[in-house]
Amino acid sequence: MRALDLLRADHRHLQSLFERARGTADFGERREIFEELRDSLELHLELEDEVFYPPFQQRSDWFEVVEEALEDHRLLLEMTGELASVTDREEFSDLMDELMESIEDHLLEEEQELFPALLPVLTLSQWEGLAATMEDHRESSDLEAA
After folding, report:
1. All structural domains of the chain with their residue ranges
2. For the chain, where are the alpha helices, taking DSSP H only?
3. What residues contact residue 107 under an 8 Å CB cut-off, 6+ apart?
4. Residue 73's Cα: distance from chain center in Å?
């Protein structure tokens, strides 16, 4: 489904940033990568929170699952906020590694468990409409596209 493909493309972009971050020990470069990671993550989570998850959240059988995903999003955003204010190199490196691991765990859970389970919930037409809405939202977002 195109909607899931859009989210998976965001996931691949985030993972490419993780690889870049892990490939350098330079504090300034890691900080720049973090800024790009934060912007990309914020856009991705906004897209999921405001467009992707709401149709599923309306269904009582998916409400708790979606709430758990949204809580993960809140925690990831808290982590990025905390990391943004860190100036100590070692603390920054440790928190950056923790953030990347937390994001990777979240993405893996979405892709391996949640997305496949959601496929039969919507009709093909609903999936197409959701993808179009996601694309429109991304284009009109104040945040830069990933």
Report:
1. 2-140
2. 2-22, 27-47, 54-57, 63-84, 89-109, 115-118, 124-140
3. 11, 14, 15
4. 7
CA 62, CA 74: separation in Å to the nearest integer? 18
Q: What percent of the chain has pLDDT over 70?
A: 96
Burial grade of 20 (CB within 10 A; 0-12, 13-18, 19 or more):
middle
Model confidence pLDDT, tens digit, residues 52-86: 999 998 888 998 999 999 999 999 999 999 999 99
Identify the CA nearest to 122 among candidates 44, 67, 59, 73. 59
Q: Which homologous superfamily is 2-140 in?
A: nmb1532 protein domain like (1.20.120.520)
Average pLDDT over residues 31-49: 96
Query: Do the Cβ atoms of 48 and 69 come closer than 8 Å?
Result: yes
pLDDT value of position 128: 95
